[in-house]
Design a protein that fits this description.
CATH superfamily: Lipoprotein localisation LolA/LolB/LppX
Strand order of the largest sheet: 8-9-10-12-13-2-3-4-5-6-7-14
Oligomer: single chain
CATH class: Mainly Beta
Distance between the termini: 75 Å
Structural class: alpha+beta
Number of domains: 1
Radius of gyration: 20 Å
Largest sheet: 12 strands, mixed
Strand content: over 45%
CATH architecture: Clam
Order of helices and strands: HEEHEEEEEHEEEEEEEH
Number of strands: 14
């Protein structure tokens, strides 16, 4: 009986060791997603304008930066999960705007994803070379969407994307609704090289500065 217990313990240790080797954590690196836009109208002008758009996520410790680049312009979000502060940078038609967010603003901005849950399935497919499992995301407002994730890749900074904070792996493909548009993100590649710290600096000049509360007030008055 003693030998059996030792053998079982040894098996558990080996299994855990293999699992830890197979799983790769990202604390410093870059994720690149391709974007495909689908519109609800008959005229696909917006989808055509955003054709070929990409989203790049830069990670370094508690800091993250998400850049979306398309033919219309660029939009970036820089966030530090340690302080909770963030900025949103918008560059369109030669105009440069920086929206500043406090930690409270960041929480309010992502409140819709606080109670998101995931229903896991056995369906899988390979995305960017990684075996990805299918899950159904359910939001508190009743909306659902499909997400594929790789349990072999784990981002250490869970605040880099509030949508997937409780997902047990890296989101490799997902679709988000924005009005009549459906935006599909698919992981294209991962770069594990360290990201320069300067990538996460908040700009000090060159932008028209607005607080998050001011931007929300303008949004409410815009038809």
């Amino acid at each position: 009986m003693k030998k059996l217990r030792i053998a079982l313990l040894f098996t558990v240790m080996i299994t855990a060791a293999i699992s830890s080797v197979a799983q790769k954590n990202i604390s410093d690196g870059t994720l690149v997603y391709d974007i495909v836009i689908q519109t609800g109208g008959k005229e696909p002008q917006m989808a055509d304008a955003l054709d070929g758009a990409t989203t790049t996520v830069y990670l370094k410790g508690t800091k993250s930066r998400t850049d979306m680049v398309n033919s219309l312009g660029n939009e970036s979000t820089i966030h530090d999960s340690k302080t909770g502060n963030a900025v949103i940078l918008k560059e369109y038609s030669g105009q440069k705007l920086m929206i500043t967010l406090t930690s409270q603003n960041w929480i309010a901005k992502n409140k819709a994803y606080d109670d998101i849950t995931f229903e896991f399935t056995n369906e899988t497919k390979t995305i960017a070379g990684y075996t990805s499992k299918k899950a159904i995301a359910k939001m508190s407002n009743g909306k659902t969407f499909v997400v594929y994730y790789s349990p072999d890749i784990v981002v250490e900074n869970k605040d880099y994307n509030s949508t997937f904070k409780n997902l047990p792996g890296l989101a490799t493909q997902y679709e988000i609704e924005n009005g009549k548009m459906k935006i599909n993100y698919t992981l294209a590649k991962i770069n594990f090289d360290p990201v320069p710290a300067a990538k996460f600096d908040f700009p000090k000049t060159g932008y028209r500065v607005m607080t998050y509360d001011e931007s929300q007030a303008i949004k409410k008055t815009t038809p």
